[in-house]
UniProtKB/TrEMBL annotation:
Keywords for the protein's UniProt record, in alphabetical order: Glycosyltransferase, Magnesium, Manganese, Membrane, Metal-binding, Transferase, Transmembrane, Transmembrane helix
InterPro entries (UniProt xref): DPM1-like (IPR039528), Glyco_trans_2-like (IPR001173), GtrA_DPMS_TM (IPR007267), Nucleotide-diphossugar_trans (IPR029044)
Transmembrane intervals: 283-304, 358-379, 385-402
CDD domains assigned to the protein according to its UniProt record, in alphabetical order: DPM1_like
The organism's place on the tree of life at top rank: Bacteria
Pathway the protein acts in: Protein modification; protein glycosylation
Official protein name in the record: Dolichol-phosphate mannosyltransferase
Length: 418
């Protein structure tokens, strides 16, 4: 007899505080009533070549530590390779296996939540269905939950963690996404070392009754951003290379990641828990804006002074280029670095005042730059490039500090830049 599929829930993406009733249990004998239960969701799309080994490896381990107290929920998005059917055929052997075939909805994050909605456990979890997440790490995640964590995350970025054979580009993209996340949503992304992880366990109570609304791949962001997670544990793991099937990640997931961050940011439930302290965050932004100014300066200097372009005199070109760089930096800083303060001091008058102060401080900084460079080079005999770097660092601090104190002076109670 083939086990029936679990119907996929519809409606809002909310996990209830009370676990789904055991009455929906197909194999009552496999569940010990009253026991806390682990419900591990395995989202799949075209994982036909992996699913059997996956279920086998997980069951093998869990049977030893949690006999009769866990369930595996495969949530398959109607895979053309019939992953759902293959999983369904395994159910008679693995009595704790349940299979959902989703035909109305798609996407990794929603698949995970739909799985949790039918879950009977007090502890909810997710693991990739392609064996890239080592099953043995699950035992350490369980141990962390046992010791009182609300959330236990398998992380590539703590001790014993890592990636197996990623090339430089992939590492840079992955870290870049994380840094971007830190800038946009420090209070969420900064809480764990691997916010991209799709391998974690969470207490049902920490996400219960929250309306979840994820976009794309990164379900952990949603859990951190909308849940009430207090204690977090991280367990290192090495992200394995895929042996069978292929990844579903395309450029689209990167765009969705950004959308997801913005959406979480503007959500009212988003708690203001900055990971970087406000001054550090501001300084970081200020530095980035400064770099953008260097690009503007360089580009204009080229257009104005290069013999193959306009060919104007160097000094005149440099003055114009610098001024445009300063304007560029002002606009970004006013909107972003100090945006929270600027929005409390609206009106063109005040804006112009801020700009003039900023402009003046930056020009003074330029003079200071030349003086420091000369002093270090001529008086102390320091190598001119090292001297220049030191001068730039000093002037960046000068610019930041004075602008903070003068141009974007806080008048009211401070708040996180939004
Ligand atoms: N149901 C469903 N629907 N499952 C999906 C979908 C979907 O639309 N898209 C992907 N999956 C399943 C895959 O079948 C696989 O089991 C898992 O989700 C992860 O998808 P992959 O395409 O293999 O992703 P990956 O290996 O690049 O991505 C992983 O990157 C992280 C590390 O940064 C993420 O999925 C994370 O889980 C992982 O930790
Ligand atoms: Mn994968």
């Amino acid at each position: 007899m083939v086990q029936p599929l679990v119907p996929s829930p519809t409606g809002s993406l909310q996990v209830s505080a009370r676990a789904a009733e055991p009455s929906v249990c197909r194999h009552p004998a496999s569940l010990q009533p009253g026991q806390p239960l682990l419900s591990l969701v395995i989202p799949t799309f075209n994982e036909g070549q992996n699913i059997q080994s996956m279920i086998h490896q997980l069951s093998d381990r869990l049977d030893r530590v949690l006999p009769g107290q866990y369930e595996l929920i495969v949530v398959d998005d109607d895979s053309p390779d019939y992953t759902w059917k293959l999983a369904q055929e395994l159910a008679p052997i693995y009595s704790h296996l349940r299979v959902m075939r989703r035909q109305q909805e798609r996407g990794l994050s929603t698949a995970v939540i739909r799985g949790w909605q039918v879950a009977r456990g007090q502890v909810l979890g997710v693991i990739d269905g392609d064996l890239q997440h080592p099953p043995e790490v699950l035992l350490r995640l369980l141990a962390a939950i046992d010791q009182g964590a609300d959330l236990a995350v398998a992380s590539r970025h703590v001790q014993t963690g890592g990636v197996s054979e990623w090339n430089l580009l992939r590492r840079v993209l992955s870290r870049g996404a994380q840094i971007l996340g830190l800038l946009i949503l420090p209070g969420v992304v900064g809480r764990v070392s691997d916010p991209m992880s799709g391998y974690f366990l969470v207490q049902r109570a920490a996400i219960a009754d929250r309306v979840l609304s994820p976009v794309g791949y990164k379900i952990l962001l949603e859990v951190l951003g909308r849940g009430t997670v207090q204690r977090i544990a991280e367990v290192g793991y090495v992200f394995q290379e895929r042996q069978e099937g292929e990844s579903k990640v395309t450029w689209k997931q990167y765009v969705q990641y950004l959308q997801h961050l913005w959406r979480l940011r503007s959500s009212p439930t988003q708690a203001a828990r900055p990971a970087l302290s406000l001054p550090v965050l501001r300084f970081f932004r200020f530095g980035l804006v400064g770099l953008s100014g260097v690009l503007v300066d360089m580009a204009l200097l080229y257009v104005l002074s290069d013999p193959t372009a306009l060919g104007w005199g160097l000094t005149r070109s440099k003055i114009i280029a610098s001024e445009f760089a300063i304007i560029n930096n002002f606009l970004w800083n006013d909107r972003w670095t100090f945006g929270d303060i600027a929005r409390q001091q609206t009106g063109w008058n005040k804006r112009l005042k801020r700009f003039l102060k900023f402009n003046f401080i930056c020009l003074a900084g330029l003079v200071l730059n030349v003086l420091i460079l000369n002093g270090l080079f001529n008086l102390f005999g320091i190598n001119r490039y090292i001297a220049n770097l030191l001068a730039i660092a000093a002037v960046t601090l000068w610019n930041f500090w004075l602008n903070l104190k003068l141009s974007w002076r806080v008048t009211d109670a401070n708040s996180l830049p939004r």
